[in-house]
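User: What would this chain look like folded?
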Amino acid sequence: MSLIQEALRRKDDDDGVPRLTPPPRVIPPINGDVPPVLKLPEQRKSSARIWVAVIFVLAAVLASIVVALGFLLHSTRQIVQSATHVTAPSSQPATPPSRVETPLPPVPEKKVTQITLEPVRTSAPARIEAKPPTPAAVAAEPAAARGPAPVAPASVPATRPAARDTARPPPIITAQPRKSLEGVRTIPVAMVSTSGWPRLNLHGVMAQSGPNQGSAIINGTVVEVGERIDGARLVEVQRNGVLLEFKSSTQFVRVGQSTF
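Assistant: Here's the prediction, encoded as structure tokens.
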């Protein structure tokens, strides 16, 4: 066998063909023991590189978080300091500002008007009544001697005595404030002209299509055709005025005018 192999080897060497060596024989394990699989050094290096990369990434993330937190804290402090500086109370002046008082306008006082009325002095003649004589005097005097008793003229004083004037003080009249006339309803009194027509003011007309239809505002009152106001009857309503009748006489009054 060895001779055959040796001859083949020599032939291959002569032909220039590389010699094929058979694979080594594998010795089967004894008692079923399997030798441990050894890791190659290249696999260990690749796993170590992966862990280094993971650690580097984590460190970079932590560093960025720390930097962001520091920036936020710094900006927050600056904002708080600026707000405190703005809202800080300003120093008060040594002397307070003088207070200017505006004088109020004077209140007008109500003047009380006193009116003194003096009594009218008249020189009226005094009325003197003659007393009848007593019965004793009549019996003593004779009938012939009795005559009409002369009436003595009485002196009439021109003026009243001063004591009476001074005893009575003159009355004092106090002017009362004029009451307001608001809310008091005044009743207009119809004015009558020399011709007999009452004063009727035409404020407006409301004419309609019919001949005997329509109304007018006279003296602030709405009057329809055929009705009367202050004795005058509304006969006709036109666009520019009305026709009135008063005691068999007619008169045309335009809008905004009156009967006289």
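The beta strands are 114-116, 172-174, 202-207, 214-218, 221-224, 228-229, 232-237, 241-246, 249-254. If you want, I can go into more detail on any region.
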